[in-house]
Design goal:
Strand content: under 5%
Mean pLDDT: 83
Oligomer: single chain
Low-confidence stretches: 4-39
CATH architecture: Up-down Bundle
Shape: elongated
Number of helices: 6
CATH class: Mainly Alpha
Number of strands: 0
CATH superfamily: Ferritin, core subunit, four-helix bundle
Radius of gyration: 17 Å
Largest sheet: none
Distance between the termini: 28 Å
CATH topology: Ferritin
């Protein structure tokens, strides 16, 4: 009985370490992208590429959540992420086409994709409540990092007024996603 309790405590500690690492990594990677962007401002095509990467990442994570979870709240959240980010992606692609802007890869979009691949690998290794908690924690950290990158780097550096306006218009949606993720995290017993 004591060994079982010790195993549970170690598992909780490992999950908390994993969560902290995910938050730290996403903050550092996007922070590095943000700092780098100040030294070398992203171009409009790079901004479009970053937004497309961020949208695709969140849709992919949500699709993984739908496959792995049995929790109705997590499913509802994941479905909302897929729906909202699909619509946002369509809007960004339509605007880019209208403006004649072709998305370009950047160090930031590449870092986002690498981080997402690492997080997906970690999430695939979890099941049940551990998966649900990690997914919710990831979504909180991810949306906060994306909001920070948008407000501190992408919006200030967007040269085209329509692109800047579209980014500003997406901010409330991202804030709403983060708040929803925080509520989900709390309902799952997270912090």
């Amino acid at each position: 009985m004591r060994k079982t309790r010790l195993r549970r405590e170690r598992t909780k500690l490992n999950i908390n370490k994993t969560w902290f690492a995910a938050v730290f990594t996403s903050t550092v990677l996007l922070g590095a992208g943000t700092l780098k962007a100040y030294a070398q401002a992203p171009t409009d095509p790079q901004i479009v590429g970053i937004v497309q990467a961020a949208n695709q990442i969140d849709m992919d994570q949500a699709k993984l959540a739908l496959k792995k979870t049995k929790n109705p709240q997590v499913k509802e959240f994941a479905n909302q992420m897929i729906s909202d980010h699909t619509n946002l992606e369509k809007s960004v692609n339509d605007l880019a086409k209208k403006l004649g802007v072709t998305a370009e890869a950047s160090d930031t979009s590449k870092q986002l994709k690498q981080q997402a691949a690492d997080e997906s690998k970690k999430l695939r290794g979890l099941r049940g409540k551990a998966f649900d908690k990690e997914y919710a924690s990831h979504e909180v950290a991810y949306h906060q990092a994306v909001i920070d990158a948008a407000t501190k780097t992408l919006i200030p550096n967007a040269q085209n007024a329509e692109l800047k306006s579209a980014l500003e218009g997406a901010a409330p949606l991202l804030q709403g996603h983060m708040q929803h993720a925080q509520q989900l995290q709390q309902s799952l017993g997270g912090s």
